């Protein structure tokens, strides 16, 4: 069964059935003010930080799922219903949700009345606009009652869900004409509040959830106000504050009316604060609210949003003979890259927004697929990330986006983290040629007075790995490397004595994966050193790269594939000697990308991936899955076989193998693996796959799982960034290089000639890739034929017409 289809012309996914296997969501906002919205109107809104600035309440693990959000109740004189189906579940004559780029349109029709709600956040304002269009398709005048509803969260989303003994006493609101102001905690902070407004005279309002429902035993489906069609004008004092605004519309036959609701956030400036009263200062916010009462301003803001996305996505576009490939690269993969850059792993329908904040390794990797879109924002993020690094090169694993402070509860000790900073900085410099970032003064651990040039942070990152090696000359794994669930230090060599769970861990457990990372990214670091005159440092690190490569070959090679690690006792992990977990995917991809042992080692490793790890949805993380718990391996063995890290298709690492295939010049296998979990290519499996068919999920249950093929954790995953890199920079082969734009495709036979439009360093490139064995290896640049792979940039030339023969 198909629940919808792609509309490439409008860059939308169109959902025709409200009861999707799981809620299929979209993201609103792109500049600090964000919203998550499902195909039935569920979700929530926050400013900057999903934990500390949560505007509206959302309940995870709710029954039924996704109950609560931005609801519009419609009474057409006969029945009451919702255009998004929930919460009333009244059967509609027609339903449609269009998830677009930064907006969602939900349309429902009943008894000749069509209601369409367009949800979006303007580019530079802290307000969520809901444009409600009510169309009377009958020949008779209709009186329509409309109730807009949101439920406020009490700002700190974690405290909102736990500290009820306090929170049930602090809810405060104000109502002024057609606006509900949510001012809980304003008494303490006196500088921020939220509001819900409609640009029409209201018939009534409610701000008390209990009053609206009529009883604490009712739900949004049988709320008393909705059943009686009469607001109570309740004013919340404590309890659970909401905002409900009722309007009445008289619409002639075959005509329509449009009204605008606003869900906004406002911070009083210093001169707007009251010192002696708890009443909020509305002077500044009234002007902002009034702006979007004007339909022309709303239309203008929506058009600007669409232009923003058209421009942003135009920095990399392709035209090929494969519609699905074009769709992923041109629209949905890049869109997801932007979302993961904005959110890291903080706020989705699988991440509550209260725990992880912005991940260090996550955000560094997100930059790889985002930097070509808005390089200046990547630069800002790099500085934020480097600012939570310690002097020795280790880093906090996470930070809160509002405070920019490292998360002390999680701490550091994830020994892959520092190297990802090198990856992000090298990607940024290749894209922009901006070496000045290396001179930016950046603190350690956000401590004033500790600032040093960003280059010193890269130095600390590289030397952290150099200074933390184990008995085989391989990097110590610490608490974990990329795989947080491979916990090789979770117990001590002394029986009954546990290791620390925070900070650096004193153990000999080693990671072959980090070794592959080091060889790859230390090579990038050497390049940066040589290009900035630091030749002595470059020479030193080259020797360390050679030592690490030899350590992998001598101690990290299992004969047919790369080992995964050594545990705290010196036992091999991911070896043919192992009973379970004989082969892991991560080092096969990364060590092949780093060309450790040369192409022949890579060919053998990837042949083993083909033999042991592949299924119809991609390559599984390990094989065979663990069937019993191993204390010396940790959380990875706590999952049922075939789930999550224990043998699922962990989509994040599949692109490493795709890039590995391109490294050994095997375009057929690269594209085959790419297609196995690319959303557009598996849309027809939605009933099995379950998550959204337009974005990547983190994991797909493997062959050993009872729910083989079922995906989990959609949207916020490094899969987005890495898959875009794999497809655009390695299969299509158009990628940024220090010296210019490199064009080195590794195309499969099913992809014919490709045209690529690339905006790079303020210059436009129109590239045609042509399969021609007679002219293979040549490139024609503005009419000049050359035997090179890199288009050198000349200051006087702004447009490049390139033909690459392969």
UniProtKB/TrEMBL annotation:
One of its GO terms (biological process) is carbohydrate metabolic process. Transmembrane segments: none annotated. Residues 308-733 form the Glycosyl hydrolase 94 catalytic domain. SMART domains: CBM_X. InterPro entries: 6-hairpin_glycosidase_sf (IPR008928), 6hp_glycosidase-like_sf (IPR012341), Gal_mutarotase_sf_dom (IPR011013), GH65_N (IPR037018), GH94_catalytic (IPR033432), GH94_Enzymes (IPR052047), Glyco_hydrolase_94_b-supersand (IPR010383). Keywords: Glycosyltransferase, Transferase. Pfam families: GH94_b-supersand, Glyco_hydro_94. The keyword Electron transport does not apply. Residues 11-271 form the Glycosyl hydrolase 94 supersandwich domain. Gene3D superfamilies: 1.50.10.10, Glycoside hydrolase, family 65, N-terminal domain (2.70.98.40), Maltose phosphorylase, domain 3 (2.60.420.10), mpn423 like domain (1.20.890.20). One of its GO terms (molecular function) is carbohydrate binding. PANTHER family: CELLOBIONIC ACID PHOSPHORYLASE (PTHR37469:SF2), CELLOBIONIC ACID PHOSPHORYLASE-RELATED (PTHR37469). This is Cellobiose phosphorylase. The lineage of its organism: Bacteria, Bacillati, Mycoplasmatota, Mollicutes, Acholeplasmatales.
């Amino acid at each position: 069964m198909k629940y919808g289809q792609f509309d490439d012309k409008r860059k939308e996914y169109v959902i025709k059935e409200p009861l999707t296997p799981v809620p299929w969501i979209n993201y609103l906002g792109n500049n600090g003010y964000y919203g998550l919205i499902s195909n039935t109107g569920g979700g929530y809104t926050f400013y900057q930080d999903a934990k500390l600035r949560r505007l509206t309440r959302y309940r995870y693990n709710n029954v039924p799922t996704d109950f609560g959000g931005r609801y519009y109740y419609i009474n057409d004189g006969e029945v009451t219903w919702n255009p998004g189906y929930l919460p009333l579940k009244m059967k509609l004559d027609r339903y449609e949700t269009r998830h677009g780029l930064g907006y969602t349109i939900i349309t429902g029709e009943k008894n000749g009345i069509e209601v369409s709600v367009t949800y979006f956040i303007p580019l530079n304002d802290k307000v969520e606009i809901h444009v409600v269009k009510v169309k009377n398709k009958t020949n008779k005048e209709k009186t329509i009652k409309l109730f807009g509803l949101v439920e406020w969260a009490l700002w700190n989303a974690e405290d909102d869900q736990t500290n009820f003994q306090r929170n049930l006493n602090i809810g405060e609101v104000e109502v002024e004409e057609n606006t509900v102001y949510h001012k809980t905690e304003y008494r303490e902070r006196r500088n921020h509040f939220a509001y819900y407004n409609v640009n029409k005279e209201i018939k009534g309002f409610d701000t008390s959830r209990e009053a609206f429902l009529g009883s604490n035993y009712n739900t949004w489906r049988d709320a008393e106000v909705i059943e009686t069609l009469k607001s109570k004008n309740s004013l919340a004092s404590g309890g659970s504050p909401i905002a409900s605004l009722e309007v009445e519309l008289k619409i002639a036959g075959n005509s329509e009316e449009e009204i605008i609701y606003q869900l906004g956030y406002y911070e009083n400036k210093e001169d707007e604060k009251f010192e002696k009263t708890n009443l909020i200062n509305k002077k500044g916010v009234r002007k902002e609210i009034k702006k979007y009462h004007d339909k022309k301003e709303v239309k203008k803001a929506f058009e600007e949003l669409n232009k923003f996305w058209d421009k942003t996505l135009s920095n990399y576009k392709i035209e090929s003979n494969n519609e699905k490939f074009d769709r992923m690269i041109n629209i949905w993969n890049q869109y997801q890259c932007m979302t993961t850059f904005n959110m890291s792993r903080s706020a989705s329908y699988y991440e509550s927004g209260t725990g992880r904040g912005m991940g260090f390794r996550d955000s560094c990797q997100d930059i790889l697929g985002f930097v070509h879109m808005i390089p200046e924002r990547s630069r800002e993020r790099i500085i934020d990330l480097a600012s939570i690094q310690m002097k020795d090169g280790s880093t906090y694993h996470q930070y809160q986006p509002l405070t920019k402070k490292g998360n002390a509860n999680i701490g550091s000790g994830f020994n892959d983290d520092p190297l990802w900073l090198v990856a992000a900085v090298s990607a940024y410099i290749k894209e922009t040629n901006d070496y000045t970032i290396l001179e930016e003064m950046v603190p350690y651990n956000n401590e004033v007075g500790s600032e040093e040039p960003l280059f010193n942070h890269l130095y600390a990152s590289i030397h952290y790995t150099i200074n933390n090696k184990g008995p085989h000359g391989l990097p110590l794994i610490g608490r974990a490397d990329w795989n947080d669930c491979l916990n090789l230090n979770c117990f001590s060599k002394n029986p009954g004595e546990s290791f620390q769970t925070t900070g650096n861990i004193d153990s000999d457990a080693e990671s072959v994966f980090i070794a592959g990372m080091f060889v790859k990214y230390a090579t990038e670091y050497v390049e940066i050193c040589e290009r900035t005159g630091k030749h002595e440092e470059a020479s030193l690190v080259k020797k360390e790269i050679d030592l690490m490569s030899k350590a992998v070959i001598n101690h990290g090679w299992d004969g047919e594939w790369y080992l995964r690690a050594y545990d705290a006792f010196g036992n091999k992990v991911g070896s043919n000697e192992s009973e379970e977990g004989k082969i892991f995917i991560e080092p096969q991809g990364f060590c092949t990308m780093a060309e450790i042992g040369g192409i022949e080692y890579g060919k053998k490793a990837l042949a083993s991936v083909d033999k042991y790890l592949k299924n119809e949805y991609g390559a599984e993380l390990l094989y065979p899955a663990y069937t019993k718990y191993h204390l010396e391996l940790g959380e990875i063995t706590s999952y049922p076989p075939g789930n999550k890290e224990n043998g699922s298709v962990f989509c994040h690492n599949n692109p490493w193998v795709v890039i590995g295939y391109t490294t050994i010049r095997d375009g057929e296998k690269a594209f085959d693996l790419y297609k196995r979990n690319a959303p557009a290519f598996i849309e027809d499996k939605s009933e099995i796959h379950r998550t959204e068919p337009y974005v990547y999920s983190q994991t797909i249950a493997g062959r050993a799982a009872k729910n083989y093929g079922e995906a989990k954790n959609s949207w916020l995953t490094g899969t987005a960034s890495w898959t875009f890199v794999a497809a655009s920079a390695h299969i299509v082969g158009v990628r940024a290089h220090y010296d210019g734009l490199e064009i080195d495709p590794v195309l499969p036979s099913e992809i014919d000639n490709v045209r690529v439009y690339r905006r790079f360093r303020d210059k436009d490139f129109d590239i045609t890739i042509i399969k021609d064995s007679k002219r293979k290896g040549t490139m024609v640049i503005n009419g000049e034929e050359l035997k090179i792979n890199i288009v050198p940039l000349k200051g006087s030339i702004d447009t490049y017409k390139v033909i690459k023969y392969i």
